[in-house]
Amino acid sequence: MVGVVEYETHGAIALIALNNPPVNAMAVALRQGTADAFSKAEADQNIKAIVLTGRGRCFCGGADIREFGKPRKEPFLTDIINQIEACGKPVVAAIHGAAAGGGCELPLGCHYRVGDASAKFALPEIKLGLQPGAGGTQRLPRLIGIAPALNIILSGEYVNADEGKALGFFDEIIEGDLVQGALDYANKLIAEGKGPRPTRDMNIDDTGAEKIFADTRAKIARRSRGLIAPERCIEAVESALKLSLDEGLALERKNFDELVVSDQSKAQRHLFFAERQAHKIPGVAADTPVREINKAAVIGCGTMGRGIAMSLANGGVPVTVLEVNKEALDKGLAMTRDTYAGSVSRGSLAQSDMDARLKLISGTTDYADIADAGIVIEAVFEDMELKKQIFAKLDATCKPGAILATNTSSLDVNEIAAATKRPGDVIGTHFFSPANVMKLMENVRAEKTAPDVIATVMKLSKDIGKVGVMVGVCDGFVGNRMLYAYRCQAEFLLEEGALPHQVDKVITDFGFPMGPFAMGDLAGLDVGYLVRQHRRKTKPSNDRYSFIGDRIVEMGRHGQKNRKGWYLYDEGSRKPVPDREIEKLIVGISGELGIVRRDITDEEILQRCMYPMINVGAEILSEGIAIRPGDIDVIWIYGYGFPVGKGGPMFYADQAGLKAVYEVMSALHAEHGDMLQPAPLLKELASSGKSFAGLQ
Ligand code: NAI
C-alpha cells in the first residue's frame, strides 16, 4: 500500500511508514492512515511485532502549525498514541532525522525506540508559546526522569542520538540501514519473548522532585518573565508525578487549548513566520547563488569587533582580526579569551569548545593577512573619514569577490561604499552589543549592493546562529531610528513629571528586560552623549530636546561603569538604586523649562514610549527601509529585548488596534507638535480599519 502511510509485512513484523513529504507532518490523512495501519497489524494473527518509521528526510516534524487554533479534526493524535501504547504487540519506533513535537510524542507512545546517528528529538512547542499537547509532558518524564524532561520541554531544543541514548529515550542506536536494524531489533524482541512496554506504566523517580521544580521555577522567572507557557509546562510535568496518565493528559489538553488561543502564542507564532519570511527579499531570487565564505576578517578588536569575531568563530568560521597596532591587538585578543573563559567558569561553555573556538581566531596588523578573506567586517570607531580610509584600503587589498561589510550603527553605507571601486560588494552588517550574545544582525542593503552579496550575508547570519533582517539605508536604520523616538519620549516624561524608576518599571512590567534609563546606564551614558553632541553640530534641529541626559554626563556620571548614572550602583552590583540627587536635578530642570510637573499614569508612560516608536515604524515602512512589518518586529525582539509574548511593536500595535494608536498619536501631535505627527500610513490604515499585518 502506498499512500501517506505505507504498510508492509516483513515476516512476523508489520512495517508502518509515514510518507507525507517533506516532513511527514501529522495531517488528518496521516493520522487516519496510522490508526488504520495499527488496527490492521493488531488484527493480523501472523504479525508479532510492529515497526513505525518515516520515509524521506526525517521521522516526523509534528503538526502543521498553520492548523493550530483551528477546529481539531478526528482522529486526534492523542488517541492514536494511546492506541499504539495499548497495542498487544511490541511496537518499535525507528527514528532518523527529526522527531519533533507530535512527531516526538508519537514514539513516546511506542514501546521501544531505536534511531540512527542522524536521529534527534525535541518538543519545540514552547517556542510558539505552547506546551506539548499529545502526551509529551506526561510520557517524557516517565521515560527519562523529571529534570531532563523539564529541560527538554522548557528549552524546545533538539537532543541528538547519543544524548538521547544516554537519557534512555533511545534503546539502541543503529549503525547501517535503520529500517533493517529496527526489523532485526523487533525480531530479537520476539525471540526473547519481550512484549509491549507501555510508557504509561513506568514509575517516575521523584527523588528531589520538590527542589527540581522550585529551581526550575526560579530559573524561568528570571528568563521568561511574563510568559505563561513555561509555567503551564512545569505544571503539566508536575501533574505527571501526581496524577494518573489519563488525568495528566486531560490537564495537558486543557493547558494546550488555553495557550493556543492566547495572545502570547499568537505573537510567538507570528514571530516564527516573520523570522522565516525575513529571508524573502525583493530583487533577490530564492535561488541566487551565494559566495563561499571559508574565511572572514574583522577590522577593529574593540567591544563590537571582539563580539563579531567570537560570533563567527562560534559558527565555525575562521576569522582574522586586524587592529591598528600590536598593543591594541593583544589587548583585544586577551579580552576575547577572558570572555570565553568567563563562559567556561560559569559552566555554559566546555573548555574543549573554548579551545576550538580560540583556534579559529587569529590576529594581525597587516592587511596582506586578510587579503584572502571571503568577508571583511569593519568595526572601528564610528567615524566616516576613518571608515572611508579603511574601505579604500580594503578595496586595494582584498581578493575580487570579497564582501566588504561595515558594522556602522548610523553612518551612510552608500557613502562608505563609494570609497571603493566595488560598491556592489559593500553591505552593512549591524550587530548588537554584546555581539557574541545578541542574535540580531540588522543587515543593510546599500543602493548598489549586489543580490548575491545580500543572499550571502543573509545565509551567513543563519549559519552563525543569528537572525538576519535586511533593511535599507537611513539614519539609524530601523532599530535605532525607532529607539530614538522611544528614548526621547522617556526623557520628556521626566521633564513633565515622571521619574526614571517609574518609567523603567512600566517598561519592565510590559516585559522588556530593562527600562530605558537602566539600559542607558548599562550601555554607558558617555557614548550616547558624544553621538548627540556630534549630531547637534552636524544636524541642527528645532525639535524638542531634553537636556537631562547631557547634564548627567556632564556631572561625570557615566552609568554602571562608574557606579553612577541615572541610578546609583553599589560596589559590585548591577542593581539600579534611585538617587535623590537625580530626582532633584530632574525637578529643577522642569522648573527651568517652566513645566508644572504633574502625575503621569503608567498607561500614559507606556503609550508615550511605544506609540511614537510604532509611528516611526510606519514611516520606515512607507519609505521601504523595512520590507515588511514582521521584519521590524523581528529586529525589536532580537536586538532590543521587546517582549516576545507581545510579538514586536508592529504586531503589538495591531493588537491594540491602529485606530486607537492613531487617536493617541493625534492627541500627542496636538499637544507636542510636529515631532509627533501621525505617519500617513498609520492614518491611512487606521481610517480604513486595516492593520499592519495586512501589508505583509
Ligand atoms: P570600540 O571603540 O570599542 O572599538 C573600536 C576598535 O577599533 C578599537 O579597538 C580601535 O583600536 C580599533 N581601530 C580604530 N582605528 C582602527 C584602524 N584604523 N584599524 C584597525 N582598527 C582600528 O568601538 P565599538 O563600540 O566596538 O564600535 C565599533 C563600531 O561598531 C562603530 O561603528 C559603532 O558605531 C558600531 N556599533 C557599536 C555598538 C555598541 O554598542 N558599541 C553597537 C552596534 C554597532
What are the salient characteristics of this protein?
Rossmann fold, eight-stranded mixed beta sheet, 696 residues, 28 helices, 2-enoyl-CoA Hydratase, Chain A, domain 1, N-(1-d-carboxylethyl)-l-norvaline Dehydrogenase, domain 2, binds 1,4-dihydronicotinamide adenine dinucleotide, alpha/beta
Description of the molecule:
With 696 residues, the chain is an alpha/beta fold. It has three domains: 5-260, 2-enoyl-CoA Hydratase, Chain A, domain 1; 296-471, NAD(P)-binding Rossmann-like Domain (Rossmann fold), CATH 3.40.50; 498-597, N-(1-d-carboxylethyl)-l-norvaline Dehydrogenase, domain 2, CATH 1.10.1040. It contains 28 helices and 17 strands. An eight-stranded mixed beta sheet has the order 12-11-10-13-14-15-16-17, sandwiched between helices. Strands 1-2-3-4-6-9 form a six-stranded mixed beta sheet, with helices on both faces. α1 packs parallel to α2 and α24 packs across α27. The chain starts with a strand and ends in a 9-residue tail after the last helix. The model has no long low-confidence stretch (mean pLDDT 95).
